[in-house]
Amino acid sequence: MVREILIWPDPILKQKAKPVAKVDDTVRALVKDMFETMYAADGVGLAAPQVGVLQRIIVLDTTPRQPESKPLAMINPEIVAMEGETTYTEGCLSIPGESEDVDRAAFVTVKYLDVDGNEQTLRCDDLLAIAVQHETDHLNGTVFVDHVSTLKREIIRKKMKRLKASRDDGPRASASR
Ligand code: GNR
Ligand code: NI
Questions:
Q1: What is the number of the ligand closest to the CA of 102?
Q2: Which CATH number do you get for residue 44?
Q3: What is the pTM for the complete model shown?
């Protein structure tokens, strides 16, 4: 089931998500919905708080629609090492149409539970390293605009206010605002 993605700013997106106590069928059903939602929205990652669930779960696929596409679901992910520096122009499904440069670590090592509850460790590079940092930010109540200047953030806040207004009562009504 494709779920609705919350648009920033939303109080849910500012909260810290809770660790998953047990990887059970409810968690696996949520992971399935998160993949469906991420692919439907053409994203490369999605964090549970974006669909209104304050649990520490993220899904990733940095090469969707490719034969070697590798869907990754991470439960209780924890970045245990960061190396190097890089800058990437990031977007977010909760901030549609906007993108800004964000400084990140170039490589991250992440520990997590897979959907079978087994502990995994993965060293990530390229877009996957960026996405893991972007998604774990979501679990801590942070979005990419929290890493840019106040001015840029406030401009984006106004744009999202207009976007939400147009979704709430149609583009016609918001055209006069
Ligand atoms: O789909 C997404 N693309 C993206 C591009 C650059 C840096 C980060 C991302 S993650 C984003 C999906 C999303 O909002 N996940 O929370
Ligand atoms: Ni995002």
A1: 1
A2: 3.90.45.10
A3: 0.96
